[in-house]
Amino acid sequence: xxxxxxxxxxxxxxxxxxxxxxKRITDDLDKLANNHSANSRDIADVRLDIAKNYxxxxxxxxxLVDIKDALGRIEDKLDRKQDREHKS
Length: 88
Hints:
mainly alpha
C-alpha cells in the first residue's frame, strides 16, 4: 500500500469516528431538550396550582385573629385556675 491509500484510509476512519461522536452528542442534546420541555411544563403546572391554592393576606389575617383570641381565652382560663389554686 502506498502512503496516499493509507492517508485516505486514516482520514475515512477518523471522519467516521468523529461522525459517530457528533451523532451521539446531537442525540443526547435532543433528549435534553425534550426533558427540558417536559420539566418546563411541570413547573408551569406547579405554578398554576400554587396560584389557585394560596392563602390570601386577608384570610391569613382573619385566621391569626382567631388563633390569638383562642390563645387569649386559654391564658384567661389558666390565670383563673392559678388564682383559685393560690387562694386555697
